[in-house]
Amino acid sequence: MTPITEVEGRRLALSNLEKVLHPATGFTKGEMLHYYATTADVLLPHLHDRPLSFLRYPDGPDGQVFFAKNVPPGTPDWVTTAEVPRSEGAARMVLIQDLASLIWAANLVTEFHTPQWRIGTPDVADRLVFDLDPGAPATVVQCCEVARWLRKRLAADGIEAYAKTSGAKGLHLLAAVEPTPSRRTTEYARRLAVAAEKALPRLVVHRMTRSLRPGKVFVDWSQNAAGKTTAAPYTLRARAAPTVSAPVTWQEVADCASPGDLVFCAPDIGPRLRAHGDLLAPLLEPARSAPLP
């Protein structure tokens, strides 16, 4: 029998709670739902008003993994949805605005990915992002070196950057910016990626060509484009272990000496929140938003 639970007055059928989703640790779907319920207070503000793309992995990372952008079949009528313009035509997408909607979406087994803009202002970004992706044998250790350079370069333009793990093998840098056309944020991010390659030629590549990446960090500036999305803060990732895209301090970035230093799994997040709070909370404060130069 499928368990029925009530969340904020909404009745939810939660399925397959004993199914192992992350085989490296035996992490189950029930544990995943518990993780999202207990981190909702910090996760929901980062999802609010941002149309979601779901990367679904209902049978774990070794099963079928697929992106879903349109509203899934069977979505309850109380889940907020909105029409979103896209290059291939308008689509109706999900907005996760409350705990009940978060648990409903988590029950689908998904990573949460968001654009850098909010509903109602597509193509107008309020967030700048760099995805630092290491090409083997480079690791997150090299990403940290690049992140520190980018942080200083952004600071020179009056922009304060914050870091989080990708939850996979790299690092994300984020900054709050005054509402700016996505085309401009993308151009600005590309200029900085080019500058990083010139300053750190042994470490950085700004072009997407995969043959250029081995041993270097690809500074992916393209995720600022209006049609692109990035893994949201605190989302679980479709990996063998229940890794999380976790905010980190700049001291942790500076101290990173091996890839394992910046790997955080679902059980790590509660203690980190008690120790640090939401390290990305400044991104949610309009007063912290900076104009692009």
From TrEMBL:
EC number(s) stated in the UniProt entry for this protein: 6.5.1.1
Molecular function terms, GO-annotated: DNA ligase (ATP) activity
Superkingdom to which the source organism belongs: Bacteria
Limits of the DNA ligase D polymerase domain: 28-279
Keyword annotations of the record: Ligase
Name of the top EC class for this enzyme: ligase
UniProt name for this protein: Non-homologous end-joining DNA ligase
Organism: Streptomyces caeni
Gene behind the chain: ligD
